[in-house]
Design brief:
The chain has a single domain, classed as P1 Nuclease (Orthogonal Bundle). The chain has twelve helices and seven strands. It has a three-stranded mixed β-sheet with strand order 5-7-6, with no helix packed on it. Strands 1-2 form a two-stranded antiparallel sheet. Strands 3-4 form a two-stranded parallel sheet. Helix 6 packs antiparallel against helix 7 and helix 11 packs antiparallel against helix 12. The N terminus is likely disordered.
Length: 359
């Protein structure tokens, strides 16, 4: 899901409003995060990563190539007969570009098996249709009024992004997945594939922080009311339309944030490597890092919603809300800088985590 914020961040294309699952950064951004981590792995971790990722029919896979895997599994569809199949969309062959390292029969079967095991452990119907519990592993929607992540908050659940990362860490550390998290992770290779992607997701601000609105478009605090109104829910920014960047097209705010600055390409740059090396070490034990990193990204999300106001859209608009900017160009510049910092953090922390698991 790659949409740009304007000339500063890349070219714009129209997209559908309701995604089957949130996908931070698009595959280019995930590859950037993985590539940064590849450069920062210490010898023991690098050897373990190379061994695990190249088990089976995969060869020459590093974190850069592995990072989009969790979005590739979205090509697995559940049919009416209850069976799951990997399906290539003939009208969008570009979706397969980051998935070619996993196109053998054995690796496709792994994807199908993963989705089947993680489909019905919870219900996820963002558009009224069941999309599979595994699609909830990519995000958490903590209100931007909060300054820290806490599992008691609205927008969190036992199958959210922070819980999924914790489960994958446990598998790599040979520990049982802590209850009540409903995850089925087959082996360490699958756990590593999840982490390579989800650490990137955790650093996209709209995958952690969310704005909640009343019927008039004014921010409300769901933790004060102890509920989220489904009629006004912004769906992590997916229900917020930006009519400024591309007039007369339905571009949602979440997808604008998923895109990365086009000059970064899909690999580590010197600029990002310099920034990644300056990311301070995380205190405490690795099992506490997902919550700490979610808190850090939540604070960044405060800036992602700064200078924005919202109002209801006029039917027949597909989205519920339209966003307005205090100063659109200033916002674009701020977003560009935030994205670069978050990509660097994501790569640095993915490497830090794996170096801690395999010192």
């Amino acid at each position: 899901m790659v949409v740009a914020l304007g000339w500063l961040l890349g070219s714009l294309v129209p997209v559908a409003l309701w995604p089957t699952g949130a996908s931070a950064w698009g595959y280019e951004g995930h590859r950037v995060v993985g590539a940064i981590a590849d450069h920062l792995l210490k010898p023991a971790a690098k050897a373990q990563v190379e061994r695990l990722l190249n088990e089976g029919d995969t060869h020459g896979i590093d974190l850069r190539k592995a990072a989009p895997w969790l979005d590739c599994v979205k090509s697995v569809a559940r049919h009416d007969d209850g069976r799951f199949h990997y399906e290539v969309d003939p009208e969008h062959l570009e979706y397969e570009v980051p998935c070619t390292p996993f196109n053998s029969a054995r690796e496709r079967a792994r994807m199908v098996d993963y989705v089947a095991r993680n489909w019905s452990t919870c219900s996820y119907k963002p558009d009224g249709f069941e999309r599979g519990c595994h699609n909830t592993f990519h995000f958490v929607d903590v209100a931007i009024q909060r300054n820290s992540f806490d599992r008691a908050l609205q927008g969190t659940n036992p199958h959210d992004l922070v819980a999924a990362i914790s489960a994958a860490i446990a598998v790599l550390q040979d520990r049982p997945i802590p209850p009540p998290f409903p995850f089925s992770i087959r082996d360490k290779k699958e756990a590593l594939l999840l982490l390579a992607h989800l650490i990137g997701d955790l650093h996209q601000p709209l995958h952690v922080g969310a704005v909640y609105l009343d019927p008039g478009g004014q921010p409300v605090d769901p933790d004060a009311t102890h509920q989220v109104d489904p009629l006004t829910d912004t769906i992590g920014g997916n229900a917020i339309q930006d009519g400024v960047a591309v007039p007369f097209q339905t571009i949602n705010l979440h997808r604008e944030w998923d895109d990365i600055p086009t000059d970064l390409g899909d690999a580590a740059t010197g600029e990002l490597m310099d920034a990644a090396r300056l990311v301070p070490p995380s205190p405490g034990a690795p099992d506490g890092w997902p919550v700490a990193w979610a808190t850090d990204t939540l604070l960044v999300a405060h800036d992602a919603f700064k200078g924005l106001s919202f109002g209801p859209t006029v039917p027949p608009a597909q989205s519920k809300w339209v966003v307005a900017f205090d100063n659109h160009m200033d916002y674009l510049h701020a977003v560009d800088a935030i994205k670069r910092r978050q990509l660097a953090k994501g790569g640095a922390r993915l490497a830090e985590l794996l170096n801690a698991i395999w010192p």
